[in-house]
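Example 3.2
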Amino acid sequence: MQDFTAGVYRQQREYKSFSPSFINCPFTWENRQIDQLVEQAANLLGALNAYAEIVPDVDFSMPMSIAKEAIDSNLIEGTKTEIDEVVLPQTEIPAIRQTDWQEVQNYIEAMNFAIAELPRIPLSTRLLKDVHKILLSGVRGRHKAPGEIRRSQNWIGGASLADALFVPPSPEELPDLLSDLEKFWHNTSLQLPYLIKIAITHYQFETIHPFLDGNGRCGRLLIVLQLIDAQLLSKPALYASTFFQKNKVSYYNSLTRVRTANDLEQWIVFFLLGIVETAQHGLKTFKAIIALRQEYDTKILTLGVRAKNAQKLLQRMYATPIVNVRSVEKELDISFSSANRLLKSLTALGILKETTGHSRNRLFVLEKYLNLFRS
């Protein structure tokens, strides 16, 4: 990477666009911190996978990890939605918050779609176009060619191309750049650690900026897809966007420094530090979930004949930690009065918390569990 050249600027009428170098080539590096971070990150991801296997009914809690990733990735782009809102049905969301809520729901849908498609469709531009179409469906950006590689010039920052902070490559360059990116993904002869390949991919994807809108969200979603595709993760238990959001200025500056100073190594170090920190937080969350479930199970045993339904309800609430009486009635196929009594019992045990303070249309939240994803 000492000899890495990020690309060149090309004059395009009144502005210059950046033409990145191809990346489907061998990479070497001298920064030993990279090797240490790759090993540390790989070990932590392995531990995260192990916890994902031992947590009972772990698939019920995966929607919360995906929701956390979706919230923070969208927050980087200015979409502000709280975890409490994301797990509520759309009918409970105020009209002024509907668009932000839908953008996060789209991210969740796109992630679930892509993970389900990976065994059938290899990691490819085709898959990313399908992901992008879902991301922009019915929200801001829906008029900017969802699911289509751009045919016009876009830019980052500034009011126009003339005063833009960064202008990605021209549309004519995209076919070759995206072809090179796909070859890089599937080139097994490079003998490059997957985590470094994923780091380089994110830089290159954001530099190419292949869509008119939604490139940041699509690029960050791609990180999780690559981790799963490389079998570094078996489930989407990592929310790397939390690190990028917390270090938003450094995130953008690090990507920019690659283009301006050809310094790819500092980006890889920053990226790997993000994986390490996020994996550590994921492990902490899994441990807390296990402890919390044990606490809940002990309390539920005191409910006698209602214990079985209480267990079923809690199992579902690990995916959707806010419910009302009607949803419990439907989910458990019990009477309204039985659902009401069950929620009352779980509230008395301190497992659930009623959040509205109303006598009707009440909402009950799995408070301690939801708090694990609020931080």
